Protein backbone atom coordinates (compact mmCIF):
# COMPACT_ATOMS: atom_id res chain seq x y z
CA UNK A 1 0.00 0.00 0.00
CA UNK A 2 2.89 2.33 0.75
CA UNK A 3 4.32 1.65 -2.70
CA UNK A 4 0.89 2.24 -4.25
CA UNK A 5 0.52 5.58 -2.47
CA UNK A 6 4.00 6.67 -3.55
CA UNK A 7 3.29 5.67 -7.15
CA UNK A 8 0.00 7.60 -7.23
CA UNK A 9 1.58 10.68 -5.67
CA UNK A 10 4.56 10.71 -8.00
CA UNK A 11 2.59 10.44 -11.25
CA UNK A 12 -0.21 13.03 -11.43
CA UNK A 13 0.36 13.58 -15.15
CA UNK A 14 0.05 9.91 -16.08
CA UNK A 15 -2.93 9.52 -13.82
CA UNK A 16 -4.79 12.47 -15.33
CA UNK A 17 -4.21 11.17 -18.86
CA UNK A 18 -5.43 7.72 -17.92
CA UNK A 19 -8.55 9.06 -16.22
CA UNK A 20 -9.30 11.03 -19.34
CA UNK A 21 -8.85 7.89 -21.43
CA UNK A 22 -11.29 6.05 -19.14
CA UNK A 23 -10.38 2.38 -19.45
CA UNK A 24 -10.43 -0.85 -21.41
CA UNK A 25 -11.15 0.38 -24.92
CA UNK A 26 -10.68 4.01 -24.01
CA UNK A 27 -7.61 5.11 -25.95
CA UNK A 28 -4.90 3.02 -24.35
CA UNK A 29 -3.15 1.15 -27.15
CA UNK A 30 -3.61 -2.28 -25.63
CA UNK A 31 -6.01 -3.56 -23.03
CA UNK A 32 -3.18 -4.98 -20.95
CA UNK A 33 -2.10 -1.47 -20.07
CA UNK A 34 -5.04 -1.59 -17.72
CA UNK A 35 -3.19 -4.33 -15.88
CA UNK A 36 -0.51 -1.90 -14.77
CA UNK A 37 0.02 -2.50 -11.08
CA UNK A 38 -0.41 1.07 -9.90
CA UNK A 39 -3.96 1.33 -11.27
CA UNK A 40 -2.83 3.42 -14.23
CA UNK A 41 0.13 3.07 -16.61
CA UNK A 42 3.01 5.48 -16.92
CA UNK A 43 2.53 7.75 -19.90
CA UNK A 44 5.59 7.98 -22.07
CA UNK A 45 7.26 11.26 -22.83
CA UNK A 46 10.50 10.04 -24.45
CA UNK A 47 12.92 7.16 -24.52
CA UNK A 48 16.42 6.55 -25.74
CA UNK A 49 18.80 3.63 -25.32
CA UNK A 50 17.69 1.93 -22.10
CA UNK A 51 16.20 5.05 -20.51
CA UNK A 52 12.50 5.96 -20.48
CA UNK A 53 11.08 9.27 -19.26
CA UNK A 54 7.42 9.64 -18.31
CA UNK A 55 5.19 12.70 -18.66
CA UNK A 56 5.86 13.61 -15.02
CA UNK A 57 9.56 13.90 -15.75
CA UNK A 58 10.80 10.71 -14.05
CA UNK A 59 13.47 8.77 -15.90
CA UNK A 60 13.72 5.00 -15.51
CA UNK A 61 16.32 2.39 -16.31
CA UNK A 62 14.28 0.19 -18.59
CA UNK A 63 14.56 -3.59 -18.16
CA UNK A 64 11.14 -4.26 -19.73
CA UNK A 65 12.22 -2.87 -23.10
CA UNK A 66 8.77 -3.01 -24.62
CA UNK A 67 8.36 -6.65 -23.62
CA UNK A 68 11.38 -7.40 -25.87
CA UNK A 69 10.19 -5.14 -28.70
CA UNK A 70 13.04 -2.81 -27.78
CA UNK A 71 15.75 -5.44 -27.31
CA UNK A 72 17.80 -3.24 -29.64
CA UNK A 73 17.29 -0.29 -27.25
CA UNK A 74 14.95 2.63 -27.81
CA UNK A 75 15.43 4.41 -31.12
CA UNK A 76 18.87 3.05 -31.99
CA UNK A 77 20.66 5.62 -34.18
CA UNK A 78 21.20 3.42 -37.29
CA UNK A 79 17.51 2.47 -37.33
CA UNK A 80 16.41 6.09 -36.93
CA UNK A 81 18.71 7.22 -39.76
CA UNK A 82 17.45 4.47 -42.09
CA UNK A 83 13.82 5.21 -41.33
CA UNK A 84 14.30 8.95 -41.76
CA UNK A 85 15.96 8.40 -45.12
CA UNK A 86 13.20 6.09 -46.35
CA UNK A 87 10.36 8.25 -45.07
CA UNK A 88 11.95 11.53 -46.21
CA UNK A 89 14.55 11.54 -48.95
CA UNK A 90 13.54 8.28 -50.65
CA UNK A 91 9.84 8.24 -49.86
CA UNK A 92 7.58 5.35 -50.78
CA UNK A 93 6.68 3.72 -47.51
CA UNK A 94 3.70 1.80 -48.85
CA UNK A 95 3.96 1.01 -52.54
CA UNK A 96 3.46 -2.78 -52.48
CA UNK A 97 6.77 -2.99 -54.33
CA UNK A 98 9.62 -5.03 -52.84
CA UNK A 99 12.83 -3.32 -51.81
CA UNK A 100 16.51 -4.19 -51.89
CA UNK A 101 16.33 -3.90 -48.11
CA UNK A 102 13.88 -6.82 -48.01
CA UNK A 103 16.32 -8.82 -50.10
CA UNK A 104 19.13 -8.03 -47.66
CA UNK A 105 17.02 -8.83 -44.60
CA UNK A 106 15.89 -12.16 -46.05
CA UNK A 107 19.53 -13.14 -46.65
CA UNK A 108 20.50 -12.04 -43.14
CA UNK A 109 17.65 -14.01 -41.57
CA UNK A 110 18.79 -17.07 -43.51
CA UNK A 111 22.35 -16.55 -42.25
CA UNK A 112 21.14 -16.41 -38.66
CA UNK A 113 18.31 -18.91 -38.54
CA UNK A 114 18.91 -21.17 -41.52
CA UNK A 115 15.52 -20.94 -43.25
CA UNK A 116 15.98 -20.09 -46.94
CA UNK A 117 12.64 -18.47 -47.81
CA UNK A 118 11.18 -15.45 -46.01
CA UNK A 119 8.02 -13.40 -46.05
CA UNK A 120 7.40 -10.22 -44.11
CA UNK A 121 4.45 -9.21 -41.99
CA UNK A 122 3.54 -6.38 -39.65
CA UNK A 123 3.89 -8.24 -36.37
CA UNK A 124 4.80 -11.59 -34.90
CA UNK A 125 1.10 -12.26 -34.38
CA UNK A 126 0.57 -11.81 -38.12
CA UNK A 127 3.51 -14.04 -38.91
CA UNK A 128 2.14 -16.80 -36.69
CA UNK A 129 -1.32 -16.55 -38.18
CA UNK A 130 -0.06 -16.62 -41.73
CA UNK A 131 2.31 -19.50 -41.07
CA UNK A 132 -0.48 -21.51 -39.41
CA UNK A 133 -2.57 -20.95 -42.49
CA UNK A 134 0.23 -22.23 -44.71
CA UNK A 135 0.77 -25.25 -42.46
CA UNK A 136 -2.90 -26.16 -42.84
CA UNK A 137 -2.64 -25.72 -46.58
CA UNK A 138 0.48 -27.89 -46.80
CA UNK A 139 -0.77 -30.75 -44.62
CA UNK A 140 -4.52 -30.62 -45.13
CA UNK A 141 -4.90 -30.97 -41.35
CA UNK A 142 -6.90 -28.56 -39.20
CA UNK A 143 -5.19 -28.31 -35.82
CA UNK A 144 -2.24 -26.64 -34.19
CA UNK A 145 -0.51 -28.25 -31.23
CA UNK A 146 0.50 -25.75 -28.56
CA UNK A 147 1.75 -25.98 -24.99
CA UNK A 148 -0.23 -25.06 -21.92
CA UNK A 149 0.48 -21.43 -20.93
CA UNK A 150 2.23 -20.59 -24.16
CA UNK A 151 1.67 -17.22 -25.77
CA UNK A 152 2.13 -16.46 -29.46
CA UNK A 153 0.38 -13.10 -29.78
CA UNK A 154 -3.30 -12.65 -30.56
CA UNK A 155 -3.54 -16.09 -32.13
CA UNK A 156 -6.85 -17.68 -31.12
CA UNK A 157 -5.53 -21.21 -31.57
CA UNK A 158 -2.94 -20.71 -28.84
CA UNK A 159 -5.12 -19.47 -25.94
CA UNK A 160 -5.75 -23.02 -24.88
CA UNK A 161 -5.36 -25.38 -21.97
CA UNK A 162 -5.72 -29.16 -21.90
CA UNK A 163 -9.32 -30.18 -21.30
CA UNK A 164 -11.11 -33.50 -20.75
CA UNK A 165 -10.63 -36.37 -23.23
CA UNK A 166 -7.63 -34.80 -24.91
CA UNK A 167 -9.67 -31.83 -26.08
CA UNK A 168 -8.44 -28.27 -25.98
CA UNK A 169 -10.34 -25.81 -23.87
CA UNK A 170 -10.25 -22.07 -23.72
CA UNK A 171 -7.83 -20.51 -21.28
CA UNK A 172 -9.90 -18.68 -18.68
CA UNK A 173 -9.62 -14.95 -18.17
CA UNK A 174 -9.61 -12.09 -20.59
CA UNK A 175 -7.69 -14.04 -23.22
CA UNK A 176 -10.41 -16.63 -23.82
CA UNK A 177 -11.16 -16.55 -27.54
CA UNK A 178 -14.76 -16.80 -28.74
CA UNK A 179 -14.10 -19.87 -30.87
CA UNK A 180 -14.42 -23.60 -30.34
CA UNK A 181 -10.81 -24.53 -29.72
CA UNK A 182 -11.60 -28.19 -30.05
CA UNK A 183 -11.82 -27.55 -33.81
CA UNK A 184 -8.47 -25.79 -34.04
CA UNK A 185 -6.13 -26.85 -31.28
CA UNK A 186 -4.50 -29.65 -29.34
CA UNK A 187 -2.63 -28.89 -26.15
CA UNK A 188 0.35 -30.66 -24.63
CA UNK A 189 2.50 -30.08 -21.56
CA UNK A 190 5.95 -28.57 -21.90
CA UNK A 191 8.82 -31.00 -21.30
CA UNK A 192 6.39 -33.93 -21.55
CA UNK A 193 6.95 -35.78 -24.82
CA UNK A 194 4.35 -38.39 -23.93
CA UNK A 195 1.67 -35.67 -23.89
CA UNK A 196 2.90 -34.46 -27.31
CA UNK A 197 2.78 -37.95 -28.73
CA UNK A 198 -0.72 -38.54 -27.37
CA UNK A 199 -1.93 -35.32 -28.99
CA UNK A 200 -0.27 -36.10 -32.33
CA UNK A 201 -1.67 -39.63 -32.36
CA UNK A 202 -5.08 -38.22 -33.34
CA UNK A 203 -3.56 -37.49 -36.76
CA UNK A 204 -5.13 -34.06 -37.13
CA UNK A 205 -2.23 -31.74 -36.26
CA UNK A 206 -0.83 -29.54 -39.05
CA UNK A 207 1.92 -27.99 -36.95
CA UNK A 208 3.47 -27.97 -33.52
CA UNK A 209 3.74 -24.29 -32.62
CA UNK A 210 6.21 -23.56 -29.86
CA UNK A 211 8.88 -21.29 -28.51
CA UNK A 212 12.22 -23.02 -27.83
CA UNK A 213 11.64 -22.11 -24.17
CA UNK A 214 8.34 -20.90 -22.75
CA UNK A 215 8.82 -17.20 -22.05
CA UNK A 216 5.38 -15.93 -21.26
CA UNK A 217 4.85 -17.74 -17.97
CA UNK A 218 8.28 -16.99 -16.58
CA UNK A 219 11.10 -18.65 -18.50
CA UNK A 220 10.61 -22.41 -18.61
CA UNK A 221 13.65 -23.97 -20.23
CA UNK A 222 13.54 -27.23 -22.21
CA UNK A 223 14.93 -30.40 -20.66
CA UNK A 224 17.78 -32.04 -22.53
CA UNK A 225 16.36 -33.86 -25.52
CA UNK A 226 12.90 -32.28 -25.37
CA UNK A 227 13.25 -30.13 -28.48
CA UNK A 228 14.95 -32.94 -30.41
CA UNK A 229 12.05 -35.15 -29.35
CA UNK A 230 9.58 -32.61 -30.74
CA UNK A 231 11.40 -32.60 -34.05
CA UNK A 232 11.27 -36.35 -34.25
CA UNK A 233 7.63 -36.65 -33.24
CA UNK A 234 6.60 -33.95 -35.72
CA UNK A 235 8.31 -35.82 -38.55
CA UNK A 236 6.88 -39.18 -37.51
CA UNK A 237 3.33 -37.85 -37.38
CA UNK A 238 3.45 -35.71 -40.52
CA UNK A 239 3.21 -32.41 -38.66
CA UNK A 240 5.34 -29.34 -39.28
CA UNK A 241 7.56 -27.93 -36.55
CA UNK A 242 6.95 -24.23 -36.17
CA UNK A 243 9.40 -22.38 -33.93
CA UNK A 244 8.43 -18.91 -32.70
CA UNK A 245 11.58 -17.02 -31.70
CA UNK A 246 9.93 -13.67 -31.12
CA UNK A 247 11.16 -13.61 -27.52
CA UNK A 248 13.85 -16.27 -27.51
CA UNK A 249 16.03 -14.29 -29.88
CA UNK A 250 17.51 -13.21 -26.55
CA UNK A 251 19.35 -16.57 -26.62
CA UNK A 252 21.85 -15.13 -29.08
CA UNK A 253 22.60 -13.74 -32.54
CA UNK A 254 20.87 -16.68 -34.22
CA UNK A 255 18.31 -17.24 -31.48
CA UNK A 256 17.88 -20.56 -29.74
CA UNK A 257 17.59 -22.20 -33.15
CA UNK A 258 21.24 -21.54 -33.84
CA UNK A 259 22.46 -21.88 -30.24
CA UNK A 260 20.80 -25.26 -29.83
CA UNK A 261 20.87 -26.52 -33.42
CA UNK A 262 17.10 -26.74 -33.97
CA UNK A 263 15.64 -27.71 -37.33
CA UNK A 264 12.23 -26.11 -37.72
CA UNK A 265 10.04 -26.27 -40.83
CA UNK A 266 8.67 -22.81 -40.12
CA UNK A 267 10.40 -20.04 -38.20
CA UNK A 268 8.59 -17.00 -36.83
CA UNK A 269 10.04 -13.76 -35.54
CA UNK A 270 9.01 -10.17 -34.97
CA UNK A 271 9.20 -7.39 -32.40
CA UNK A 272 12.85 -6.53 -31.79
CA UNK A 273 14.31 -7.06 -35.26
CA UNK A 274 12.78 -3.78 -36.47
CA UNK A 275 14.39 -1.78 -33.67
CA UNK A 276 10.90 -0.73 -32.55
CA UNK A 277 9.28 -0.24 -35.95
CA UNK A 278 6.39 -2.69 -36.49
CA UNK A 279 7.62 -5.76 -38.31
CA UNK A 280 7.46 -9.50 -38.45
CA UNK A 281 8.68 -12.33 -40.63
CA UNK A 282 8.33 -16.03 -41.16
CA UNK A 283 10.80 -18.30 -42.83
CA UNK A 284 10.08 -21.67 -44.39
CA UNK A 285 12.12 -24.59 -45.62
CA UNK A 286 12.27 -25.57 -49.30
CA UNK A 287 10.38 -28.78 -48.62
CA UNK A 288 7.58 -26.88 -47.00
CA UNK A 289 7.57 -24.36 -49.84
CA UNK A 290 7.26 -27.24 -52.31
CA UNK A 291 4.20 -28.46 -50.45
CA UNK A 292 2.40 -25.17 -50.99
CA UNK A 293 3.57 -24.66 -54.55
CA UNK A 294 1.28 -25.23 -57.51
CA UNK A 295 2.29 -25.48 -61.13
CA UNK A 296 0.82 -22.93 -63.45
CA UNK A 297 -1.16 -24.05 -66.47
CA UNK A 298 0.92 -21.82 -68.70
CA UNK A 299 4.19 -23.69 -68.41
CA UNK A 300 6.81 -25.04 -66.09
CA UNK A 301 7.06 -22.05 -63.83
CA UNK A 302 6.01 -22.69 -60.26
CA UNK A 303 4.00 -20.27 -58.25
CA UNK A 304 3.68 -20.31 -54.52
CA UNK A 305 0.02 -20.56 -53.75
CA UNK A 306 0.02 -18.78 -50.46
CA UNK A 307 -3.64 -19.29 -49.87
CA UNK A 308 -4.53 -15.63 -49.70
CA UNK A 309 -1.78 -14.81 -47.24
CA UNK A 310 -0.77 -11.18 -47.47
CA UNK A 311 -1.19 -7.68 -46.18
CA UNK A 312 -1.13 -4.25 -47.78
CA UNK A 313 1.40 -2.86 -45.34
CA UNK A 314 3.33 -6.10 -44.83
CA UNK A 315 7.05 -5.71 -45.39
CA UNK A 316 6.60 -2.05 -46.24
CA UNK A 317 9.72 -0.11 -47.11
CA UNK A 318 9.89 1.58 -43.71
CA UNK A 319 9.92 -1.67 -41.80
CA UNK A 320 12.39 -3.39 -44.13
CA UNK A 321 14.73 -0.38 -43.84
CA UNK A 322 14.39 -0.58 -40.05
CA UNK A 323 15.10 -4.32 -39.98
CA UNK A 324 18.15 -3.93 -42.18
CA UNK A 325 19.66 -1.26 -39.96
CA UNK A 326 18.77 -3.05 -36.73
CA UNK A 327 20.05 -6.46 -37.76
CA UNK A 328 23.07 -5.08 -39.58
CA UNK A 329 24.27 -2.53 -37.06
CA UNK A 330 22.56 -2.95 -33.68
CA UNK A 331 21.68 -6.54 -32.79
CA UNK A 332 25.13 -7.79 -33.77
CA UNK A 333 27.08 -10.74 -32.39
CA UNK A 334 29.10 -8.35 -30.20
CA UNK A 335 25.88 -6.82 -28.85
CA UNK A 336 24.53 -10.25 -27.90
CA UNK A 337 27.79 -11.13 -26.16
CA UNK A 338 27.57 -7.92 -24.11
CA UNK A 339 23.88 -8.41 -23.30
CA UNK A 340 24.36 -12.04 -22.29
CA UNK A 341 27.26 -11.17 -20.02
CA UNK A 342 25.08 -8.61 -18.26
CA UNK A 343 22.15 -11.01 -17.90
CA UNK A 344 24.54 -13.54 -16.37
CA UNK A 345 25.67 -10.91 -13.85
CA UNK A 346 22.04 -10.03 -13.13
CA UNK A 347 21.16 -13.70 -12.57
CA UNK A 348 24.09 -14.12 -10.17
CA UNK A 349 23.12 -10.95 -8.28
CA UNK A 350 19.50 -12.05 -7.85
CA UNK A 351 20.56 -15.56 -6.89
CA UNK A 352 22.90 -14.14 -4.24
CA UNK A 353 19.99 -12.25 -2.66
CA UNK A 354 17.72 -15.30 -2.78
CA UNK A 355 20.43 -17.40 -1.10
CA UNK A 356 21.28 -14.77 1.50
CA UNK A 357 17.65 -14.20 2.51
CA UNK A 358 16.73 -17.85 2.03
CA UNK A 359 13.87 -16.93 -0.28
CA UNK A 360 12.27 -19.93 -2.07
CA UNK A 361 12.29 -18.37 -5.54
CA UNK A 362 14.27 -19.30 -8.64
CA UNK A 363 15.74 -17.40 -11.56
CA UNK A 364 16.15 -18.65 -15.14
CA UNK A 365 18.25 -17.05 -17.85
CA UNK A 366 18.03 -17.25 -21.61
CA UNK A 367 20.93 -15.29 -23.08
CA UNK A 368 20.22 -11.57 -22.73
CA UNK A 369 17.18 -12.09 -20.53
CA UNK A 370 16.54 -13.45 -17.05
CA UNK A 371 13.39 -13.79 -15.00
CA UNK A 372 12.62 -14.82 -11.46
CA UNK A 373 9.70 -16.95 -10.36
CA UNK A 374 8.17 -17.46 -6.92
CA UNK A 375 9.05 -21.12 -6.63
CA UNK A 376 12.15 -23.27 -6.25
CA UNK A 377 13.41 -25.27 -8.09
CA UNK A 378 12.64 -23.52 -11.38
CA UNK A 379 9.39 -24.81 -12.92
CA UNK A 380 9.62 -27.43 -15.68
CA UNK A 381 6.14 -27.00 -17.15
CA UNK A 382 3.76 -24.16 -17.91
CA UNK A 383 1.34 -25.62 -15.37
CA UNK A 384 3.96 -25.58 -12.60
CA UNK A 385 4.99 -22.07 -13.49
CA UNK A 386 1.39 -20.84 -13.58
CA UNK A 387 0.80 -22.38 -10.14
CA UNK A 388 3.67 -20.27 -8.81
CA UNK A 389 2.11 -16.98 -9.99
CA UNK A 390 1.30 -14.45 -7.30
CA UNK A 391 -0.44 -11.27 -8.43
CA UNK A 392 0.06 -9.45 -5.14
CA UNK A 393 3.78 -10.15 -5.11
CA UNK A 394 4.01 -9.15 -8.77
CA UNK A 395 2.26 -5.88 -8.06
CA UNK A 396 4.46 -5.10 -5.06
CA UNK A 397 7.69 -5.81 -6.91
CA UNK A 398 6.64 -3.98 -10.03
CA UNK A 399 5.63 -0.85 -8.12
CA UNK A 400 8.51 -0.95 -5.65
CA UNK A 401 11.02 -1.21 -8.50
CA UNK A 402 9.23 1.48 -10.48
CA UNK A 403 9.21 3.83 -7.49
CA UNK A 404 12.98 3.35 -7.30
CA UNK A 405 13.61 4.12 -10.94
CA UNK A 406 13.57 0.64 -12.48
CA UNK A 407 11.03 -0.20 -15.14
CA UNK A 408 9.74 -3.75 -15.50
CA UNK A 409 6.81 -5.31 -17.34
CA UNK A 410 3.70 -5.66 -15.13
CA UNK A 411 3.30 -9.34 -16.02
CA UNK A 412 6.91 -10.51 -16.23
CA UNK A 413 9.54 -10.42 -13.50
CA UNK A 414 11.93 -10.07 -16.34
CA UNK A 415 15.14 -8.20 -16.86
CA UNK A 416 16.11 -7.87 -20.49
CA UNK A 417 19.38 -6.28 -21.54
CA UNK A 418 19.84 -4.15 -24.65
CA UNK A 419 23.10 -2.99 -26.26
CA UNK A 420 23.07 0.18 -24.17
CA UNK A 421 22.48 -1.48 -20.81
CA UNK A 422 25.57 -1.08 -18.61
CA UNK A 423 27.04 -3.02 -15.74
CA UNK A 424 26.15 -0.08 -13.48
CA UNK A 425 22.48 -0.43 -14.54
CA UNK A 426 22.56 -4.12 -13.66
CA UNK A 427 24.18 -3.44 -10.29
CA UNK A 428 21.53 -0.81 -9.55
CA UNK A 429 18.84 -3.36 -10.38
CA UNK A 430 20.28 -6.15 -8.24
CA UNK A 431 20.86 -3.76 -5.32
CA UNK A 432 17.30 -2.47 -5.60
CA UNK A 433 16.04 -6.04 -5.79
CA UNK A 434 17.96 -6.79 -2.57
CA UNK A 435 16.32 -3.78 -0.91
CA UNK A 436 12.72 -4.48 -1.93
CA UNK A 437 12.87 -8.25 -1.38
CA UNK A 438 14.72 -7.67 1.90
CA UNK A 439 11.80 -5.49 3.04
CA UNK A 440 9.43 -8.41 2.37
CA UNK A 441 11.46 -11.07 4.13
CA UNK A 442 12.83 -8.97 6.99
N1 LIG B 1 5.19 -14.75 -30.18
C1 LIG B 1 5.63 -14.67 -28.91
C2 LIG B 1 6.45 -15.78 -28.35
C3 LIG B 1 5.31 -13.56 -28.13
O1 LIG B 1 5.71 -13.51 -26.86
C4 LIG B 1 4.55 -12.53 -28.70
C5 LIG B 1 4.21 -11.35 -27.90
O2 LIG B 1 4.52 -11.21 -26.75
C6 LIG B 1 4.12 -12.65 -30.01
C7 LIG B 1 4.46 -13.77 -30.73
C8 LIG B 1 3.30 -11.60 -30.65
O3 LIG B 1 4.00 -10.43 -30.87
P1 LIG B 1 3.19 -9.14 -31.31
O4 LIG B 1 2.33 -8.79 -30.14
O5 LIG B 1 4.25 -8.13 -31.56
O6 LIG B 1 2.40 -9.50 -32.50
What is this entry, summarized?
The protein has helices at 2-10, 12-21, 77-90, 100-113, 124-139, 193-200, 226-236, 255-260, 286-291, 317-330, 333-357, 382-387, 391-403, 423-441, and strands spanning 44-48, 51-54, 59-62, 117-121, 143-147, 160-162, 168-170, 185-188, 205-210, 240-244, 266-270, 280-284, 293-295, 302-304, 362-366, 369-373, 406-407, 414-416.
Structure, explained:
- This protein is α/β, with parallel strands linked by helices.
- It has 2 domains: 2-71 and 333-441, Aspartate Aminotransferase, domain 1, CATH 3.90.1150; 77-330, Aspartate Aminotransferase, domain 2, CATH 3.40.640.
- Helices cover 39% and strands 17% of the residues.
- It is built from 14 helices and 18 strands.
- It has helices at 2-10, 12-21, 77-90, 100-113, 124-139, 193-200, 226-236, 255-260, 286-291, 317-330, 333-357, 382-387, 391-403, 423-441, and strands at residues 44-48, 51-54, 59-62, 117-121, 143-147, 160-162, 168-170, 185-188, 205-210, 240-244, 266-270, 280-284, 293-295, 302-304, 362-366, 369-373, 406-407, 414-416.
- The strands form 5 sheets. The protein has a 7-stranded mixed sheet with strand order 4-12-11-10-9-5-8, with helices on both faces. Strands 1-2-3-17 form a 4-stranded mixed sheet. It has a 3-stranded antiparallel sheet with strand order 15-16-18, with helices on one face.
- Helix 7 (226-236) links the parallel strand 9 (205-210) and strand 10.
- Helix 3 (77-90) packs antiparallel against helix 10, helix 4 crosses helix 10 (317-330) and helix 6 packs parallel to helix 7.
- The chain is globular, with a radius of gyration of 22 Å.
- The two termini are 17 Å apart.
- The mean pLDDT is 92.
- The site of pyridoxal-5'-phosphate has 15 residues, from helix 5.
Amino acid sequence: QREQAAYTEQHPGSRALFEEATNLFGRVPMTWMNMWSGGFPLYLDRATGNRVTDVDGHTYVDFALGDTGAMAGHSPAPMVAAVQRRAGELGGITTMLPTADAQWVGAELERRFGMPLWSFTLSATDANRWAIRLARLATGKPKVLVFAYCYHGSVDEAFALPGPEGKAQSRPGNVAPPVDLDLTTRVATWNDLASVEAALAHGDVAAILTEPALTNIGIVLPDDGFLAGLRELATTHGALLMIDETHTLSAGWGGATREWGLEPDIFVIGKSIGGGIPCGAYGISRDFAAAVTRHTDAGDADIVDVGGVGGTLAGNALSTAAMRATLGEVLTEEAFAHMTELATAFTAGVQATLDELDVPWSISQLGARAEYRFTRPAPRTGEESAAAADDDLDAYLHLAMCNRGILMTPFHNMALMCPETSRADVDLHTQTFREVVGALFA
